[in-house]
Amino acid sequence: MFGKLVGLTALAVTVGSSLIGCQADGKRLPTDESPTRVGAYGYYWRKPKDAPAVTPTPARVSADPCNPVIGPDMMTTKQGFPTGEMSSSHVMLQEVFPAMVKANSNFPYKIYVSNLTSATLSNVIVTATSLQNRSIVTSNPQATTSGPNGETRWFIGDLPPGKCMVIDATAKANAVGNSSTCLTVSYANSLCSNLQVVQPAVALTHKVTPNATVCDAINATFEVKNTGSGPATNVVVSESLPAGLTTMDGGTSYTFNAGSLAQGQSKPFSLGLKATKPGTYTIPAKVTADDGLLATSEPQSVTITQPALKIVAECPQGGLVGRTGKPLTFKFTVTNTGNAPANTTVSATAPTNATFSSADSGGTGGAGGASWNLGSLAPGASKSVSMTVQTSGVGSVATTATATAPCATAVSAPCTATTAGLPDLGTLVSDVEGVVYVGDNHEYTCEVMNQGMVPLTNVKMTMEIPSVITFVSSAQSNRMENGKLVFEVGTIPVGGRTMWKFLAKASAPGEHLISGITTCTELKTPVRDDELTNYVSR
């Protein structure tokens, strides 16, 4: 950037007592007590018309960095560049020179160069664009005539902020009259910048658990790293998962925001995965970042296995059972049809119409059934267990065996054996006193027992009573059928019995026999029981 504004100064040159600037009749030109502007560039000093000698008014002490002291016989001019105003300019030039000199005599001439800014000005050059009736004899720094048109120049170089540089010169005016200069100043600051050129790069590695079951959590670990220079921003690791593989919360893809990575910085993260079915899965991984950065990791594979169980039940033959029951043995065979070991257990429910008796292969049992711990069952391996029960009734003897193992679906096999039993009936008609007076009420006791293995239904006892004996009463349900007393008993379960009493009396003495004939649906042959009582007269 160059600032350029020209300032012009003039001084009077006299020989003896003569003063350049008077009229032909010797009258002085009009003047003031202060410098008069010459055009737009500078000032010169006119002497008062009634003063025998010119005494310049001292210039005020400036507030610029140079702040030169102006003697009583000296005068000064100054200007800001490039605007002409000190408040908005960058450089100020100020000349200090005598108010009047003699022709062909050396005189001191100083140029003050001030940096009005807070920054260093570079390549500062002061140029005398015009030297009218003035030559530079000597100067420090040395003047050159290196301008395009041979102008005189002073090379200042760098001018620090708020600093002043003085051009200390000796000048000479060769002729009587005015001696003037026009000065300008320039500078050429350079704006320099330096930036760092970087090239970030991203790299990604990941590892996956190589083998697992469908019930295991699959651990995947990732590490993303900035292998380049400079920061990598908006670093994201993401990828879709193959079908059959999800995150622990059921997602089908994963994303990890690593944010910004400084040069050489790495960030690890881990991911839990699970499989929905057996198979081999390849898990990809990629990382992206701003500015199109992309990297992939070597795909990693995991093999997923799962145990699978099969159970087969072998049911025993049932058949007829007696009153003490019959032992039955149930056998169960478990096979691991999967491709992973199965830590297998087997349980069998308590059978109906039977009680637990024993279990082989280390099994335990009781009222709730039986159970076995088979341990680890290798893929393709089978193992059999048995449970023996004691039947306690007829009908279905049913149980269900279930095989379970971690990570395997439980399987069950029901097993039923059918037992059959025969009916049997026991009866009793009795009394306590064997000799009874005629006309007295006599108590008889009747009892029916189910001694078979099936319930007895429609049980009834028909009484055969002699005509001389009359039925009095009974709490048991009864009725007269075809002139005979019939007691209704109904159903008697296996092992059950029904007992009742009735009163009767005889009208004639003698040995009188009372018979009870019992029938039921299950038996074809009636069961008869008799009681003989000896009735006597009083």
Question: What's the quick description here?
Answer:
The protein is mainly beta and 538 residues long. The strands form 10 sheets. A 6-stranded mixed sheet has the order 25-33-32-27-30-29, with no helix packed on it. Strands 35-43-42-37-40-39 form a 6-stranded mixed sheet, with no helix packed on it.
Describe this structure in words.
By secondary structure, the chain is mostly beta strands. The chain folds into four domains: 180 residues, Immunoglobulin-like, CATH 2.60.40.290; 104 residues, Sandwich (Immunoglobulin-like), CATH 2.60.40; 112 residues, Immunoglobulin-like (Sandwich); 112 residues, Immunoglobulins (Immunoglobulin-like, Sandwich), CATH 2.60.40. The chain is 0% helix and 57% strand. The chain has no helices and 43 strands. The strands form ten sheets. A six-stranded mixed beta sheet has the order 25-33-32-27-30-29, with no helix packed on it. A hairpin with a 2-residue loop joins strand 39 and strand 40.
Please render the helix and strand layout as text.
Layout (H helix, E strand, L loop, with lengths): L6 E8 L21 E3 L3 E3 L29 E8 L9 E8 L1 E3 L3 E10 L5 E12 L2 E6 L11 E8 L4 E9 L4 E10 L15 E7 L2 E3 L4 E9 L5 E9 L4 E3 L5 E9 L4 E10 L3 E5 L2 E4 L3 E4 L3 E6 L3 E6 L4 E2 L6 E10 L5 E8 L4 E6 L4 E3 L2 E9 L4 E10 L3 E10 L6 E10 L4 E7 L3 E3 L4 E9 L5 E9 L4 E6 L3 E4 L2 E9 L4 E10 L3 E10 L7 E10 L2
Parallel strand pairs: 1-6, 14-23, 25-33, 35-43
Antiparallel strand pairs: 1-12, 2-3, 4-5, 5-7, 7-11, 8-10, 8-12, 9-11, 13-15, 15-19, 16-18, 16-21, 17-19, 20-23, 21-22, 24-26, 26-31, 27-30, 27-32, 28-31, 29-30, 32-33, 34-36, 36-41, 37-40, 37-42, 38-41, 39-40, 42-43
